[in-house]
Amino acid sequence: MNNLSPPMRSLEARYYTDAAIYKAELLGVLAQTWQFAGHASQLNKPGDYFCFDIAGESLFCIKTKENEIKGFYNVCQHRAHQLLKGDGNTALLVCPYHAWSYELSGQLRSGPNIKSVPGFDKQSICLTEIRIEIFCGFLFANLDPLAKPMAEWYPNVAEELSAFVPDLERLEPIEWVEVPEHCNWKVSVENYSECYHCQLNHPTFANGIVKAKTYDIQPQGYCLRHTTECQNLDKMSYPIDVNANEFAGHYSSWFLWPMMSFQVYPGNILNTYHWRPVDHENVILYRGWFGTSDSDKSTLHELAVQDRETTVAEDIQLVESVQRGLNSRGYVPGPLVVDPKCGVSSEHSIKVLQGWIRESVNV
Question: Please, which residues have CB within 8 angstroms of residue 60's CB and are 6 or more apart in sequence?
């Protein structure tokens, strides 16, 4: 008698095609998790700010006069006009609608004719603050005021990332690219979270950066940790010194559920992925490359271009085809290939990821 349980099947198509599920995510998982906002180097002096979006909300980070970094909803407490656009520096936060002004701390400072209002208490009016954490020099936001700290969500990641990137605290953004993908954000995240497809679809990455046969992905809290060795030096698509430090000859990435990943290429080169959904069938993927003021900018630029022209371009074709297939009446979710030994030809990481997806969407 066969007592084996049937293999786990992939998620139903509705998780990726139903606008109602996406709406539930905006109110749930996307508003209750730690997500990338920006980099601390964007806020060097008091009054520096930048805007960003999470879960359909316009938000901003700003450095106060006390050199604290704070985050707020981008909305005036008077009549709801948005306060800021883009990035810049300001001495006060002044609403363009009626000129109500706020201190950099978010406290109301003044407004035209407010003293004529009996009982008006400006001390009771402040912009609505959000949770911000500085994580290895990166700024993360969470709209849930009761959320557990990032160290509990992603155990050991900060320590491991610091070991892989010796100059981590000195880094700043060097190259950015925004990549629109016509697919649900989870399709793109799932594609990132397995290398079962790499050898067939990413020849440059699989043959010129990593040894794909050594690739593995394991859960670490709400993190998926990717590890592998670098390719043989004579096959590498760029030069590295494997003796520079302990991890110079290794590749690793840390995907932080739900939409951010730190990726360290051989040679201790940090790059990032983060995803910002547009709607239930469109997402923008942001690729960032980071270095110090004395980094080899030419190598970083060449790698960024190589990545855009190979891995990124290849993935666009894959994820958009998957989205079209998910909308087909002919699609029946098949079993995941979960190898007990794990490794590159296994989808054990997708089993974990889809478990998180199921947990987050109770529909």
Answer: 49, 50, 51, 52, 71, 72, 74, 83, 84
Amino acid at 244: A
HEC secondary structure over 289-317: EEECCCCCHHHHHHHHHHHHHHHHHHHHH
The Cα-based distances of 334 to 7, 158, 339 in angstroms read 9, 36, 15
User: pLDDT of 21-62, one tens digit each?
Assistant: 999 999 999 999 999 999 999 999 999 999 999 999 999 999
Residues 265, 208 contacting (CB under 8 angstroms)? no
The phi and psi torsions of 279 (rounded to 5 degrees) equal: -160, -165
Give how far the C-alpha of residue 318 lies from the chain's centroid of Cα atoms, to the nearest Å.
20
pTM over 0.85: yes
Is 235 within the bounds of a domain? yes
Mean pLDDT of the residues in the chain: 95
Domain extent at residue 100: 33-142
Q: What is the CATH number of the domain that holds 138?
A: 2.102.10.10
Distance CA 157, CA 168 (A): 13
Is the residue at 184 inside a domain?
Answer: yes
DSSP 7: P
Q: How many domains does the chain have?
A: 2
Residue 16 in any domain: the answer is no
15 found inside a domain: no
- Give yes or no: residues 234 and 303 share one domain: yes
**Distance separating alpha carbons of residues 315 and 318, to the nearest angstrom:** 5
Say which residues have a Cβ less than 8 Å from residue 234's Cβ, sequence separation at least 6. none
